[in-house]
Amino acid sequence: MNTPVTPSSSPTPAHTLPRIAVLATGGTIAGAAPDATNTAGYQAGVIGVGQLLDAVPGLGAIARIHAEQVASIDSKDMPLALWTQLAQRVNALLASDDVDGVVITHGTDTLEETAYLLHLTVKGTKPVVMTAAMRPASALSADGPLNLLNAVTVAANAAAGQGVLVAFNNRIHCARDVTKVSTYAVDAFQSPEVGALGWVQDGRVEFQRRALRPHTVDSAFVIGAQWPQVEIVASYAGVSRAAVDALVVAGVRGIVVAGTGNGSLHATLQQALADAAAQGVAIVRASRTGSGHVMRNGAAQDGALGFVSAGTLNPYKARVLLMLALAAGHAGAAALQQVFDTY
């Protein structure tokens, strides 16, 4: 589906511009380093939302901006309580007649997790667009200002009902598909298996496809104050069962395993996870490879052991969905598999 939006040659009266709420949470986009050539030794989240907006010329010609500083953190330290706060605030803003869309600035480290969480719990069809930066605001050729400009452009022009979007390096990604694929590159966010939804450049927004799986108003999940404990383990050469056994003793509700290849598991780890499943712990098989899908192994293995396939979700997004599913009362491998097949 192509949905092009071309910038007008004449200015739009200010009172008719879309009203976009910009929520800042910190991250590299709000980071600062001692000098302009330092792109690694910086402190994240030290620049406020007002300064971020001041660094983006032309925003006033795109939208009327309402800015809020929700948090000022490095996203590697994202707490679950902030997920709850952010989702609740986005829902409140989307319910307001004074807001036409929401932009969220975020750190890159956990952006894909926050984006998918909001994709499943936001209850509105107005655009919600996340963005970030790989270089701090103090850096030579900082990428944050253009990413923020493009995110506001997408929020002001995107068709309704697209779910939560990520605008980064001129591309528009679906929250379910996008993942961080580089430690340093300005095109660090990709949708490896299916590609971007579209692109944004010089005020033009174009979508090539739509997200097909349920999200936002079609999602059954709501944000809650309580989060069931779900952890992630990995399969690798010589892995022991120590981590799984310790998590079971700690009382976790679910474990996502980043398996090799098609979610395959070392025999020792598989037995530990089967024992955990027998004690009522939800077990989801994902893959550590970074793309592709994990096929269900059928009654002879997954069915007998009580395991669930994550499908195309990476381990970190599978954890988000499993937490939401458990919080909503879904129990048992069959019911959880239906959730993963749906979302």
What's the short version?
28% of the residues lie in helices and 20% in strands. It is of the alpha/beta class.
Q: What percentage of amino acids are in beta strands?
A: 15-25%
Mean pLDDT: 94
**In terms of structural class, how would the helical and strand content be classed?**
alpha/beta
Count helical runs. Answer: 9
What is the element layout, followed by pairings?
Blueprint: E1 19-26, H1 49-54, E2 64-73, H2 80-94, E3 101-105, H3 111-121, E4 128-131, H4 144-157, E5 164-168, E6 171-174, E7 179-180, E8 189-190, E9 198-201, E10 204-207, E11 230-234, H5 242-250, E12 254-259, H6 267-278, E13 282-287, H7 299-305, E14 307-309, H8 315-327, H9 333-342
Parallel strand pairs: 1-2, 1-3, 3-4, 4-5, 11-12, 12-13, 13-14
Antiparallel strand pairs: 5-6, 6-9, 7-8, 9-10
Walk me through this protein's architecture.
- This protein has helices at residues 49-54, 80-94, 111-121, 144-157, 242-250, 267-278, 299-305, 315-327, 333-342; strands at residues 19-26, 64-73, 101-105, 128-131, 164-168, 171-174, 179-180, 189-190, 198-201, 204-207, 230-234, 254-259, 282-287, 307-309.
- The chain folds into 2 domains: 14-218, L-asparaginase, N-terminal domain (Rossmann fold, 3-Layer(aba) Sandwich), CATH 3.40.50; 230-342, Rossmann fold (3-Layer(aba) Sandwich).
- Helix 3 packs parallel to helix 8.
- Helices cover 28% and strands 20% of the residues.
- The strands form 3 sheets. The chain has an 8-stranded mixed sheet, with helices on both faces.
- Helix 4 (144-157) links the parallel strand 4 and strand 5.
- The chain has 9 helices and 14 strands.
- Mean pLDDT is 94; it is low at 1-9.
- It is globular and about 65 Å long.
- With 343 residues, the chain is of the alpha/beta class.
- The longest helix is centred in the N-terminal third of the chain and has 15 residues, at 80-94.
